[in-house]
From TrEMBL, chain A:
UniProt keyword terms in alphabetical order: Hydrolase, Metalloprotease, Protease
GO cellular component annotations of the record: cytosol
Keyword Hydrolase: yes
Family to which this protein belongs: Belongs to the peptidase U62 family.
Organismal lineage: Bacteria, Pseudomonadati, Bacteroidota, Cytophagia, Cytophagales
Family matches, as InterPro entries: Metalloprtase-TldD/E_C, Metalloprtase-TldD/E_cen_dom, Metalloprtase-TldD/E_N, Peptidase_U62_metallo, TldD/PmbA_N, TldD/PmbA_sf
MF annotations from Gene Ontology: metallopeptidase activity
Stretches assigned to the Metalloprotease TldD/E central domain: 162-247
Protein name in UniProt: Peptidase u62 modulator of DNA gyrase
Gene3D superfamilies from the UniProt entry: PmbA/TldD superfamily
GO biological process: proteolysis
TrEMBL record, chain B:
Protein name per the record: Peptidase u62 modulator of DNA gyrase
Domain (Metalloprotease TldD/E C-terminal) ranges: 223-438
Pfam family, one: PmbA_TldD_2nd
SUPFAM superfamilies attached to this UniProt entry: Putative modulator of DNA gyrase, PmbA/TldD (SSF111283)
Record-annotated Metalloprotease TldD/E central domain positions: 148-213
A molecular function (GO) term: metallopeptidase activity
InterPro entries from the UniProt entry: Metalloprtase-TldD/E_C, Metalloprtase-TldD/E_cen_dom, TldD/PmbA_N, TldD/PmbA_sf
One BP annotation, GO: proteolysis
Amino acid sequence: MKRRDFVGLTGLAAGALWLPSVPGFGGTLVDPARLLEPGLDVAVKKRLADAALNAAKSAGATYVDVRIGRYLNQSVFTREKQVQNIASGESFGAGIRVIANGTWGFASTNQVTEAGMAKAAQLAVQIAKANAKVQKEPVKLAPQKGHGEVSWKTPIQVNAFEVPVKDKVDLLLAANAKALENGATFVNSALFQINEQKYFASTDGSYIDQDIHRIWPNFSVTAIDRASGKFRTREALSSPMGLGYEYMQPKAQDKIAGPAGTGLVGYKYSYDMLEDATLAAKQAKEKLTAKSVVPGKYDLVLDPNHLGLTIHESIGHATELDRVLGYEANYAGTSFATLEWKAKNLPYGSKNVNIIADKTQPGSLGAVGYDDEGVQTGQWDIIKDGKLVDYQKIRDQAHIVGQNKSDGCCYSQSWQDVQFQRMANISLQPGKEKMSVDDMISKVDKGIYIAGRGSFSIDQQRYNSQFGGTVFYAIEKGKIAGMIEDVAYQTNTVEFWNSCAAVCDQSDYRLFGSFFDGKGQPSQVSAVSHGSSTTRFNSVNVINTARKIG
Amino acid sequence: MAILSQSEAQGILQKVLSFSKADECEATLNGQTGGNVRSARNAISTSGGVDNVSLTVESRFGKRSGVATCNQFDDATLRNCVQRAEEIARLAPESPEYMPLLGPQKYLTSANSFAKATADITPDYRAAQVGASMKLCDEKKLTSAAFLNDAAGFVAKRNSKGLEAYQQTSGLEFSITVRTPDGTGSGYATADYNDASKFDARRLTQIAADKASGSRNAQALEPGKYTVILEPAALVANSDASLMQALMSALDARNADEGRSFLSKKGGGNRKGEKLFDERVTIYSDPLNPEIADLTFSGDGRPQQKITWIEKGVVKNLYTSRYWAQKAGIPDVPRPGGWIMEGGSQSTADLIKGTAKGILVTRLWYIRPVDPQTLLYTGLTRDGTFYIENGKIKFPVKNFRFNESPIIMLNNLEAIGKPVRVNGNLVPPLKIRDFTFTSLSDAV
């Protein structure tokens, strides 16, 4: 790229340039222009992958997969009227996973040459053989036919890396200005962009080239009352998405009006950051004087931008088969939804609860054509009419539940980390009968409407959870009756989903997203979306979180 | 090449600086070698190795700054890395928070931050330790999931103003959760060291196994306010947020001065100098403490030294960036690495003996902030929660969700035990009255 283009690309760019301490944002810091350079040609990647496959087989591996990855990221951080940090990163290398003597081994290298690949492959086999000495049962993989040479790309309209950094900075500073004009004391904003260029090859005969994009605009507005010393924040109501920069170009058809009396707007496939920042500042100020909730039982009306997190924690993680089997027992825990529990055919939720896992959903963070062990992705039922019907699986677990097929849920955050089971997009299906949010609220006598993610915590078997939110409104006799504060609800997963009384229709359906979902040891992050329409839950226990510290 | 000697590292850094054309330039080398093994269901599930050295170069023209990194060390790559940092710096906007690079600094000399025994660890050593742990669980017909992670390395820094720093470090961490086959009991143990020769996976596995066996068929108690004994691992987790780390992370001067911290004062300013905790609470950091030896310099090159954060319940110091220290006219104190909470000589067992009625907590989990104004956090007990009566553990109890603030907690202090190392800190077991449990969990 010519220097003039580079300047145009960077624009205001590159304040204090160090990588933020954000998980998954590793790699070498590069100038933004480098993010547009083409990666290795597919034919070269195939030759390098074959070098690793052959070296591992020669060393004694009975199965080998190779991931050659180029991971690009860019993050822009601002506060008030200044740029805090812009970082453009690139990470390139290869990870090689083998089965030797019936045991997994893994090694990675940034020496992506035939010699470097072969050396890493041999090391992976060596590690597998060392571990095999204390291993009792051999790894058993679900069969997987080779796909030959195939490719897949996130269907984006505008590559976010092609947008000049100046435009991104201008947008964030404009959002900050809107917040400050409308009463914010402080505002921080950020834009994260990711492009994973992944090449996968395996001894099954697959050579898969994929180009995956994700984006997340975010901000936090703080209002302070100096006299009382009270401060309150209001986070953005954006969602991270598997989209390009078109997400930052608001379109009227993507906006859904929130409940009457709140001023809230829901966003589908594009996001109006200026509009949201304006409202955020007003709502942060309003929070300073909002009434503190009276604890008790309430009917909850939960916006998709809030409910997505509840789905994520209480269904998404609970139905990952590796947790059910105990692989996460030392870290994130196990699951109440054991094989024995499922065999009893116990109700997970009411008949309104239909949950689908989908690795192909357009716009979602978890959409890929193939997973990180070469399995073509798809869609399947997790909960049908309130009953748990299936889990999320990868290849070395399917046989444990009597199945012979992976669900394509294997993922690694980078070339240098080993792939393991991660969550698919897990979504609540909308109601079949026409119902708007205002229709739903009109039938609630004493309730609370909650939008946005807040504090969240769930136990290590996914029973007991506590969720807060971004904004809370009292519902009295079918109408919104003003903002309230200090709200958190505590539930048991099964009781909560069995209290699901109604789900709005498809017209209200939106995606919530988790950009940095942590799991595993060493911990890795992955990104996943959860769709739903606004949903009602009857008689949920709400606590008041206000405390005094003297 | 992961652990370079001081002369090797400074040689590379001198070369990097010689390539610089910027007004100011600082280069930092980070090297690490190590590995990990993860197990579950009494079998190894994943393992991996780490071996890398990376260079970070920051170049500055006036108040403009650019940073680039690389991990190859031939002249051409080094020169290219410096040029890239300079290219970015020339294009960058001026930083309103610019501070000039530091000149020569005097650093403490640490004798204990690096141990050869840790640097010498091999894949066979890791497999043997985890194998011994799994064997014990097999013998007892229990199921374990564990994680062993070790690394040794160095940090070297040099800049065009004459600053020069170098230190080697090493560390090993191990944690294990043991469960009974019927799923009604679970126990946990964790430990970390600079020196791997102190590590014994089987000993830690035995602790977790005993807790798992002892926690079978837990009984339900009503949620409410209880006297609790929080074991050190419950106060500072190695895999999650934690109550004590939340408190230490809140000692930031800028947040307090800006009005968005529990340390902000009504009407403006901060609460440094106020007594906010029980007078038995004293917390300090000391990078030379032999049990938790740490880096003697911060990321931006400031010396780390012994400093008291809370003394007899009074907030004595807040950490701050160099920019904010200058702007606010306050002492320039870097954020510490590990920290030490002073305690007594009693073990957790001694604290149990002195308790008429209470609850012993092994570990807390999924700890998340609820209200930054009051530093209120929520989370749950797990992997060994027991009812104490008349100085003895009477029976296991079901897990609880708590909603509590470390500020309130450290005002309700009944007793402090002997500090032990957890996650690079020295933390005593604490006996706390009126700890707030808000609901029950059926999770084991």
